[in-house]
Design a protein that fits this description.
191 residues, mainly alpha, Rna Polymerase Sigma Factor, Chain: A, Arc Repressor Mutant, subunit A, 9 helices
């Protein structure tokens, strides 16, 4: 396992520090600069969660406004991007809950407890193909699949974000993964 250089870690945590500190003081130009630096990546995060461009844009704008109001809570203990991404994801989840999205979670983890060798192979798929297949997933499974696979959260973090058990997160991910695989297999036979 490769260890990061402590100097590199310090630089990563302090990236854009001056701009962030200016934002904390309410400097609008600094806020606009931060927005320009992070907007594209954060829009992608919101789009993956909301699956709709207009909703994603709304969530991103609301989350940026929320982040700028809460800047005093940023302590430079993580990267600003990671902190902002968490705000974006929480905003999207809250909106889905507000819309009373029918999140479907299951507690029978044993169904997918064993990972087969076939599942670990690289299928040479594109992200776009996987996204299209994700559209057919139940909203709860889709959210967990997206958080784990596309956003890089682990199951402990997902369980905290969604207020579910770690085993539930793992089960939903495995079910979603299995369903996406089925959809992609059906699609490849149709073409």
């Amino acid at each position: 396992m490769e260890r990061k250089n402590p100097l590199v870690e310090k630089i990563e945590l302090n990236i854009h520090r001056e701009l962030i500190e200016q934002c904390m003081q309410g400097n609008r130009k600094a806020q606009y600069s931060i927005y320009q630096l992070y907007a594209k990546a954060m829009l992608n995060v919101c789009y993956r969660m909301m699956q709709n461009k207009e909703d994603a844009e709304d969530m991103m704008q609301d989350a940026f406004a929320d982040a700028f109001r809460r800047m005093s809570g940023f302590r430079f203990e993580s990267t600003f991007g990671a902190w902002l991404k968490r705000i974006m994801i929480n905003r999207c989840i809250n909106e889905m809950r507000r819309k009373k999205a029918n999140l479907q979670f299951f507690d029978d983890m044993h169904v997918f407890a064993q990972k087969t060798e076939e599942e670990s192979n690289d299928y040479g798929l594109t992200v776009d193909q996987v996204r299209k297949a994700m559209r057919d997933l139940p909203s709860g499974s889709k959210m967990i699949f997206s958080l784990y696979l596309l956003e890089g959260y682990d199951h402990n973090e997902i369980s905290e974000i969604l207020n579910i058990s770690v085993s539930n997160s793992k089960t939903q991910y495995m079910r979603a993964r299995h369903r996406v695989k089925e959809i992609l297999t059906q699609t490849s036979y149709e073409n």
